[in-house]
Design a protein that fits this description.
Blueprint (H helix, E strand, L loop, with lengths): L1 H6 L6 H17 L8 H15 L2 E3 L4 E3 L3 H17 L3 H11 L7 H17 L2 H16 L4 H6 L1 H4 L1 H14 L14 H13 L6 H9 L19 H20 L7 H27 L15 H17 L4 H20 L6 H10 L4 H10 L12
Helix pairs in contact: 2-3, 2-4, 2-5, 4-6, 5-7, 6-10, 7-10, 11-14, 13-14, 13-15, 13-16, 14-16, 15-16, 16-18
């Protein structure tokens, strides 16, 4: 209890900073993370988290109460700084699990977690994002009731769920993509699909919230020349358009002596998931005009669309014409068509012409060109 008594000498947020150090030491000493510290230490960890991280401790007033929104932001900054500076990966992962265990049962934990992950995406704090990804994967695959708890997450906090999807895109890569990042698992992909199927406006929540927060600012918070990191939609579009192409490339390199049946089954399962996710994306884009202030917002910026189009075009050139190239190009053009029609994507006629010229030709692209190249959607206000 000496640890607890020493922490009670400090006010918030200093006590939270020291509490994270104390937790890290406990986890290192336990050597097995959470669980595995032993009953006494597990109880101590839970007490420290509850009292000094998610509780507002005041030495002078000798009281303990919940944090307000500003204090949650202060706590988020403390957590971000700790994860950015702490070098041991195993301890970071264990600490994240300890701090945010059973978060689906706590409105305050969900609120803080939402802010922390959102801030981590904004400042590209890879240490925290990686720990968040491991935490979610454990929830999906290891925790007894984890999948059930995550399934209800959009009801608990749509904003956090949207932010979590964005973080997942930052952390994970596609199965066949050349990257040092961990590969997105089918379980996590299915979870994203379930979330977006439950509420087709879910992936728009962060845009709506950010637009509300910055409603008093005279300039826009998005820029056509920069990717939109406030929403998972651009990243999901990139995944869905690249997935069939990367799968086809990987399949073409498969050794003929390998287990062809297992490879075929895996590809078929993957194709089904990407098709479902693509449908969810289109449903989300169709809901974009219903967001308050939609004419002042961008769901997919010119920078996003340019990158997605170039990525698909490069991969198509590496493959001979096949079903995968048709699927990828059709998905890309469908997204372009719906985004133009709803105002989720805006650009000049010149920029749109370049985009259409870069996309491999298909029948739907000809329709889009006939519809929109004579007049492009209005550019963003204050775009310059």
């Amino acid at each position: 209890m000496d640890r607890v008594q020493s922490l009670r000498r400090y006010d918030f947020p200093e006590c939270a900073k020291l509490a994270l150090d104390q937790l890290a030491n406990l986890l290192v000493q336990g050597n097995q993370g959470i669980p595995g510290l032993g009953a006494a230490n597990e109880d101590l960890v839970e007490q420290i988290v509850s009292e000094f991280i998610f509780g507002l401790t005041s030495v002078k007033l000798r009281q303990h109460r919940k944090l307000n929104s500003l204090q949650e932001l202060q706590l988020g900054d403390v957590i971000l700084q700790f994860f950015a500076q702490h070098k041991d990966e195993a301890t970071r992962h264990s600490l994240f699990k300890a701090v945010f265990s059973r978060c689906c049962d706590s409105e305050q934990k969900v609120s803080v977690l939402s802010k922390v992950v959102s801030m981590a995406v904004g400042v590209q704090n890879s240490n925290l994002l990686n720990s968040a990804a491991v935490w979610m994967q454990d929830y999906c695959e290891l925790a007894p009731d984890g999948a059930s708890a995550l399934k209800d997450l959009p009801r608990v906090s749509p904003h956090f769920t949207c932010t979590m999807i964005t973080a997942i895109i930052c952390v994970y890569s596609l199965p066949e993509e050349s990257s040092k990042r961990p590969v997105i698992s089918s379980r996590i992909l299915e979870q994203i699909i379930d979330w977006m199927s439950f509420d087709c406006r879910l992936a728009l929540t962060s845009i709506h919230q950010t637009q509300y927060i910055h409603s008093q600012r005279p300039t826009l918070w998005t820029s056509p020349t920069k990717p939109n990191t406030q929403t998972p939609i651009p990243g999901l579009v990139r995944w869905c358009t690249r997935a069939p192409l990367l799968t086809a490339l990987q399949h073409s390199k498969t050794d003929e002596k390998s287990d062809v049946q297992n490879t075929t089954n895996e590809l078929q399962s993957s194709a089904h998931l990407w098709t479902k996710l693509h449908f969810c994306i289109l449903q989300t884009i169709l809901q974009f005009p219903t967001i308050p202030g939609a004419p002042q917002l961008e769901l997919i910026t010119l920078a996003d669309m340019t990158t997605i189009v170039k990525d698909v075009s490069v991969l198509v050139q590496r493959l001979q014409s096949c079903q995968a190239t048709e699927v990828a190009v059709d998905r890309l053009v469908q997204v372009l068509q719906v985004a133009l029609a709803t105002g989720a994507f805006r650009c000049s006629i010149g920029d749109l012409r370049v985009i259409c010229q870069t996309i491999p030709p298909c029948r739907l692209l000809s329709i889009v060109q006939n519809q929109h190249l004579s007049f492009a959607p209005p550019p963003m206000h204050n775009a310059s």
